[in-house]
Amino acid sequence: MRPGYALTVESLRKTYPGGVEAVKGISFSVRRGEIFGLIGPNGAGKTTTLRIVATLLRPTGGRVEVYGMDVVDEAMEVKKIIAYLPEESGAYRNLRGEEFLRFIARLNTDDAREEEEMMEYAAELSGLGDRLRDKVATYSKGMTRRLLVAATLMRRPRLAILDEPTSGLDVLSASRVRASIRRYVEETGAAVLLSSHNMLEVEYLCDRVAVIHNGVLVAEGEPRSLKEKYGARNLEEVFLKVVGGWES
Amino acid sequence: MGKLRVIVWKEVLDIVKDPKFIVGLLVPLFLFPALGAVFSSAAGGVPEKPCIAVRDLDGSKASRLFVEVLSRYASETCGEPVARIIIPKGFGGLLERSGTFNVTVYYLMSSSGLRATTLAASVDKAVKKAASDLFLEIAGLHQRVVLVKKTVYRGRVLAVPPEAFMGIVFGLFNILVWGVFMVAIIAFQLVVVSIASEKEYKTLELLLTQPISSTMILAGKLVASILIALVESLILFVGMAFYIQGVGSVSASRGSVEASAGLLEELRRAGLLPTAPALAAYLALVFASLIFLLSIGVVIGALSSDTKSAGGLSGILVPILVLPALATMFIDVTAFPQPLSTVLLLIPFVSMFAGGRLLLLNNVALLVVSTLATILWAAAFMALAARIYSSETLLTFRAEALKSVLRIYGGKR
User: Fold this and answer.
1) Which residues of chain B does A51 touch, with a Cβ-Cβ cutoff of 8 Å?
2) Shortest distance, CA A231 to any CA of chain B (angstroms)
3) Which of A80, A152, B255, B287 has minimal CB crowding within 10 Å?
């Protein structure tokens, strides 16, 4: 493990049983207290990479370590310090918002006081107020996403893996979620690995960014240095130049 | 155990808070008693002796005797008759010459409902009994003949008629097994839906990344499903008890309760009531069968992308499992030659159904063999289920081949 790093990914490969090679030997690292953005077009290998880091998929080759622990050999230990928010995620529809949060809290602690702290923190993060007493089935897509972000961060993970955290949210909700993520990192010093199609969001949130395309990392660096390198006004232009250039 | 309790709590809450589930749960409480009440009122009110009007056109000694013996089973001094019997001229002569006679019975049906059918049946019964008595009277056998029926079952003599014995076999043991089967099927459906809905509502990945083993998640789902299935079955039984009470009030004859008690005593005397070891072995067999079915449910749920496809797969697999077992309700596989019987008793579910009869025979040895075989089956499938549930197959499996089967099975699905 490289000291000071929350996550190290080395020569990661993933080939699915059908023969599809989703990730072709990528390497990158995420420092402690850093928000690292993984961006790329659909099917580039972002979600596969995040799922491997989250211990859900086994890599075909290479190595992934979270705070020095191997995600395959020490999966249970890794699970204790990470939290994963999938892109397409839902909550149990028949449970009330607070029941859902309590379920997640109880899975993560046996201590009643700690459980209550988690609940208070989650209520604050979600900003759902009294609506937490309503069934999840009555929530809008944005409310459900806010609940899920709260359920992910309430555990105070040392590495939060967020796949499209503001997917499907309106401007106001997305802004609140971004603020929650930024505040969370500042307060806890945890690391965040996130993927997003929203380049403005990535530019606003991320300390460093990697562009993945066809399972290969084609660019990596701080948003400002990437803009300078590619002579772009914003990250979207960087993305278009990198991905477009790669395709041509 | 703490985490298991958390998973069970969530599963139970998620299931019981589903309005569809609550409605489904409460329906038997209203439906079955209502059906029983309808049946009872439709068929009820049948007198012990049907009201039959007799017109004797013959007036012979024999015809008068027939009217007399008929009065033992039917009443003439009543309100509206339900049948009219005409004794034709020549009744006595024909009886004297050929030992036969004929009467014409007009069934006076005021409706085409269940009560009319029951009344007609009671008239039939009265006429047949009267005819039988008439022949005995003519033959000078004034004392009633008592037919003593005894049953010999597998070398054990029972002072009860075979129909009463079979009533116990079907009534007690099959109902017992059906009760267990009902729990198993309900729990199976709950497990399948619980796992498939994790995929459908996109909660699976969130759950699998919590600091808890997938085996624990699986165990929580199984325990919750069994608990809910027990409650659901209990409610179903309460509903059915009301139904049976309604139907039973029509069909039960006087003294049937006493007769049942006597029969049970007779079974106990003949050693045909289960002993504690046999019951324990059978309970183990039932539990192993339940786990076997639930493990199949986990496999189906894990290989399905949503609850709809899970339902389709269950629709194919459950009949394959259950139909051979159902056959054992009507075929006593324990009476087959020993090797064949033993092989059949190694098949899960067949053994659970047939086990009811082994219980009757107190065949602990064969029950233990069946139980061990089912435990092996259950362990193998549970290992497969746990393997699927803890691997990335759960997330990446695309049931294209299974979907093709479903398309064929379900037409345009």
Assistant:
1) 205, 395
2) 39
3) B255
Cross-chain residue pair A92–B201, CB shorter than 8 Å: yes
Domain that holds residue B73: 52-138
Taking a C-beta distance cutoff of 8 angstroms, is the pair B127, B105 a contact?
A: yes
B90 with B206, same domain: the answer is: no
Alpha-carbon distance of A43 to A39, in angstroms, equals 11
Are B293 and B386 members of one domain? yes
Tens of pLDDT along A197-221? 888 899 989 999 999 999 999 999 9
pLDDT digits (tens, 9 = 90+) for B5-18: 999 999 888 888 88
Q: How far is B2 from chain A (nearest CA, A)?
A: 8
Are B235 and B100 found together in one domain? no
Q: Considering only alpha carbons, which residue of chain B is nearest residue A160?
A: B209
Residue of chain B nearest A100, judged by CA positions: B10
Token pair recorded at residue B166? 């079979």
Domains of chain A: 5-247 (3.40.50.300)
For residues A88 and A29, give the distance between their C-alpha atoms in angstroms, rounded to a whole number. 25
Question: A84 near A96, Cβ under 8 Å?
Answer: no
Asked whether residue B33 falls in the same domain as residue B56, the answer is no
Overall domain count for chain B: 2
How far does the CA of residue A54 sit from the closest CA of chain B (Å)? 7
> Strands A208-213, A35-39: parallel, antiparallel or unpaired by DSSP?
parallel
ipTM for the assembly: 0.92
Is the CB of B102 inside 8 Å of chain A's CB atoms?
Answer: no
Chain A CA closest to residue B210? A79
Residues B108 and B197 in one domain: no
- Find out whether A150 and A104 touch, Cβ atoms under 8 Å: no
Q: Does B208 touch chain A (CB under 8 A)?
A: yes
Contacts of A108 in chain B (CB under 8 A): 210-211
User: Would residue B301 count as lying in a domain?
Assistant: yes
